[in-house]
Amino acid sequence: MTQVSTDHLDGVLDHIIDMWSAAVRNRHSPLHTPTVCSVSGDAPAPRIMVLRAVEGPCATFRFHTDVRSSKALQIDAAGPVAILGYDPDARVQLIVRGVGRIERSGDIVDRAWETSALSSRRCYLAAHPPGTQTPEATSGLPEALLNRSPTAPESEAGRENFCVLLVDAVELEWLKLTSCGNQRALFQRSGNGWTGNWITP
Ligand SMILES: Cc1cc2nc3c(=O)[nH]c(=O)nc-3n(C[C@H](O)[C@H](O)[C@H](O)COP(=O)(O)O)c2cc1C
After folding, report:
1. Could you tell me if residue 123 is inside a domain?
2. Ligand 1 atom with the shortest distance to the CA of 66
3. What is the pLDDT of residue 6?
4. Are strands 92-103 and 43-48 parallel, antiparallel or unpaired?
5. Beta strand residue intervals within the chain, DSSP E
6. pTM for the whole thing?
7. Measured on CA atoms in the order 169, 163, 42, 34, is the torsion positive or negative?
8. How many helices and strands, by DSSP H and E, does the chain display?
9. Atom 29 of ligand 1: nearest residue by CA position
10. pLDDT score, position 16
11. Is residue 130 part of a domain?
């Protein structure tokens, strides 16, 4: 990650963009698996997801999921979504608030499926939707695939359950913990860029 000064709002924004971008590539980063929170009726619905891509300067965040899952049904075409992570080394909490959309077809989805590892594609071969009640503990996967990844042809049956969650960010929040007083900033989307303000922690 490049060194950025967080004395100024421009530096804070660079820091936010840098941290999220680096998290996509670095699976050891705690921000690689943020909490993604949707809304179920009037209740929050959080879960951990793998961050797959961040396009533009934190404009769009991409995740992969099962189209039959609760989150896909909750978010659908334009559901509110928050993305939350904390990097304990940097002592920074990041929050993204935005509008989510579930995509089942198109170039982004085709490419995401094509570049998914066979071990990842296996998740989409479960016979029943995520969240289905079962009489005993089960992965839901076909017996033959419990101890191995599917072959490429076997994995293709999972394509119809695969979808992409895209979150268009409208707000970016940054909270830095320091021993001499915390700092917090909020950026709001304005056109293709961001307008920021300091806010009290
Ligand atoms: C480290 C980790 C990574 C995960 N990554 C994903 C993911 O990328 N996509 C996904 O749909 N679920 C992922 N999950 C599972 C979700 O947290 C969640 O249990 C599942 O998707 C069902 O969520 P829902 O019923 O709220 O839709 C992950 C869980 C963990 C612990």
Report:
1. no
2. 11
3. 86
4. unpaired
5. 35-40, 43-48, 53-55, 60-66, 79-87, 92-103, 162-176, 183-190, 193-199
6. 0.97
7. negative
8. 5, 9
9. 48
10. 98
11. no
pLDDT of residue 3: 65
147-156: long-range contacts at Cβ-Cβ below 8 A with a sequence spacing of 24 or more? 149/117, 149/118, 149/119, 149/121, 149/122, 150/118, 150/121, 150/122, 150/125, 151/118, 152/118, 154/125, 155/118, 155/121, 155/122, 155/124, 155/125
The count of domains in the chain is 1
Q: Given ligand 1 and candidates 48, 71, 124, which is best to mutate, with the most ligand atoms within 8 Å of its CB? A: 48
- Which atom of ligand 1 lies at the shortest distance from residue 47's CA? 17
Question: Mean pLDDT for each consecutive 10-residue tract of the chain (201 residues)?
Answer: 80 98 98 98 98 96 98 98 98 98 98 98 97 95 96 98 98 97 97 96 97
Can you give the residue range of the structural domain that contains 101?
9-118+161-199
Report DSSP state, residue 16: H
pLDDT, residue 28, reads 97
CATH code for the domain of 39 = 2.30.110.10
- What's residue 5's pLDDT? 83
What's the confidence (pLDDT) of residue 2?
A: 59
Instruction: Show Cβ contacts of residue 27 under 8 Å, excluding neighbours closer than 6 positions.
Output: none
The two structure tokens encoding residue 194 = 């961001």
